[in-house]
Prior knowledge:
By secondary structure, this protein is mostly helical. Helices cover 55% and strands 6% of the residues. It has helices at residues 36-59, 62-75, 82-98, 102-115, 120-136, 147-156, 161-180, 207-216, 222-231, 235-239, 272-281, 294-303, 314-327, 330-337, 341-348, 354-360, 372-378, 382-392, and strands at residues 7-10, 18-22, 29-33, 246-247, 252-255, 266-269. A three-stranded antiparallel sheet has the order 1-2-3, with helices on one face. A three-stranded antiparallel sheet has the order 4-5-6. Helix 9 (222-231) crosses helix 13 (314-327), helix 13 (314-327) packs across helix 16 and helix 17 runs antiparallel to helix 18 (382-392). The longest helix is centred in the first third of the chain and has 24 residues, at 36-59.
Amino acid sequence: MRKAPFRVKPYSHPSLKFVVRSTLTGRTERKFFRTRAEAETYARLRTTELLNQGREGVAFPTWLRVMAEREHQRLVPFDKTISDAVTFFLAHLESVARSVPLARAVEELIENRKATGASRRYCNDLRLRLGRFVNDHSSQVVAEITTKAVDEWLTGLSLAPVTRNTFRRDLRTLFSFCVTRRYASDNPVKDSRRAKEIDKPVGILTPADLRRLLAVAGEESIAYWTIGAFAGLRRAEIERLDWSYIDFDARVIEIKARNSKTATRRLVTVLPNLHAWLLQCRKLRGPVCPDVLRPRLDADRKAAGLLDEWPQNGLRHSYGSYHLAHFKDAAALALQMGNSPEIVFRHYRQLVKPAAAEAYWDIRPSLRRDNIAAFKSRADDPSEAANTGMLLGA
């Protein structure tokens, strides 16, 4: 005859006189009671439960069953199960376990970008901006950073919307990189709030400003100013430019992919007035800009009275604005600048009047008669000589 699953036995104890024994889980379990009636009631209820739920249901601890029911109810509004919750949390725990400190992740990102051809300036900027985030979260690993933490940190910077979004962009780059290396299971920055940017008119130079600047510019900086103003190259692109990249015959400047912000090669037309300026300082090869450029540029701006009134990206924005007003071809301008037509229209449309644009593109060097011989000696072909004659009448 099979033994009862829950057996009531006397127990020797000052107050607990009966015990209910069970071996349903594979080991002996005991429950103590003061009276036989309490013990028998408990045994009867458990036997009924066994009949209704089977051995596995009865062996499931009451505290665990209660907790499972409670947590299940908390998940119902989200249409999720306990299994979903456990899977999610385990993924988080595994991510934290294999994650790395933020400082290490930043260094790995920068080394990765260097290996894939990113410029030194880009890597330095990346290190500076991400370094501020690392300093404020130095005790955390990558996987512990949340969207809330990112939002609160960006808000705490108290920066202009454009600058804040630049920090956000670099953080997103960092965490996307970390996801690929499995240092985090998700990118917390992608759901962070982007600051609303209000487009402001770009700042440009007047033709009078530019004439005054070029009149006082030093010999080593004149190429920088004129290429920026009349070809619209970015500052970094001019600084990386070699004279051998300027084809005076074809009248184009080659921006090599490795020197371009967009990592794509493009050709920029050398317009007649720029051609005239560059002929004055032309070299066969070598850097267009001197090693120490910034002090020279500041000295030129100071001499022209423009040191404190210089618009941000003034040369490039001036080129875009006056080019669109004069030549009226947004698609061609976009190719020249390495931008999209949408950016060209948004920033440069209707900023200047046609008369000002005509004056801008008529800014040319005035050549002294005693420079004619030097100019002719530079001419490599008849077209160069013709250009020299044209410039004398400019």
